[in-house]
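Methods, example record. To illustrate the input and output format used throughout this study, we show the complete record for Hippurate hydrolase. The sequence lines were provided to the predictor; the line carrying structure tokens was produced by it.
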Amino acid sequence: MESLNLALVRAELHLTPEYSHKENLTADTILRYIRATEPDELYTGIGGHGIVAGYRGVWPGDSLMFRCEMDAVPTEHGPDHLCGHDGHMAILIGVANVISKARDYPGKVWLFFQPAEEIGEGAARMVVDISKHRISFDYSFALHNNPRHELNKVIMYSDVYAAASVGMELLFSGSPSHAAFPEQAANPTYAIINIVEEIKRMNSDKRLFHNFVLGTVVNVHIGEANYGVTPGSGIIRVTLRAYDENDLNLFCRKIESFAGEKASASGLKVDITYHDRFPSTRNNVLASNMVLEAAQKLGIPVEWAQAPSRGSEDFAHFTSISKACFFDIGNGMESDDIHREGYRFSDEILEPAVRLYSSIIYNRQSK
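The corresponding predicted structure is encoded as:
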């Protein structure tokens, strides 16, 4: 693997994008490259199709974990790597190629190839599975390419990297009527409209919460396409997010209470369920300093983000069991943003990211 071309590795992974929990071909490709590095420990089927490889250094020291994602973004044309996970996987394969050849580093290095990140399930499942194998680590790291920043600039986040979020589904049940007699129906239309307006109001009322919150209506369905019937049921789905998990819980309670009042006033029943819960992803100072020191040693420019990411990240499940740092690396501003059709991963990120991770691994004091 002396002449490993990471751009070609990424291109190979790019050709087989797969949905969450269906990363079979992706896992096969990763395993082919990782087995060639002869890790000291190798586990498959972790959290689904996840892969964990462990490499021991020659000196005692803390154990470090580096994570990438395996799944692709679902689109109307099928799965597509519109988030750069193909690039992130290629970076860790590059790290494996480096640390397997020169073991003059302290401690142990774990490389985690995580499935099902896009739906927020893979990390939590990996945490459960690694406990069965008694795998643990002191520090954990992950990066994400960021098309809103100049190429290869490291973007650091103080404390919160990504918001907590949850999907909230409110199902209203009433009774329909003939459209000529709407007064006979228990119609959810106005209750749902009121909820949309209340979420809009709470989004802009800074007095209600300690920090940023955002509610986004993602789906509404009321009645059927029948011009002779007043609807008797309806559903609204929203995504709620906040930097502070206490704010998120308060947001949920406020909407629950408001929906209950509107349902009662209209003779409706409301059932509320929650989906895709993400904790907030929080950075540790010690782990962040390790990234900063490595970037400075390599002369990589660093910028501190003005605010956390509004999106959510299931890497949060790893931050609960280790000292962690999640940061971004600039993808260049020529590409469209992630999850958009015009997005393109910049191969120019690959080698610098491998050098950055390698610097974190090698430039530590042994115990």
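Annotations derived from this record:
Residues 245-265 form the longest helix (21 residues).
The longest strand covers residues 59-69.
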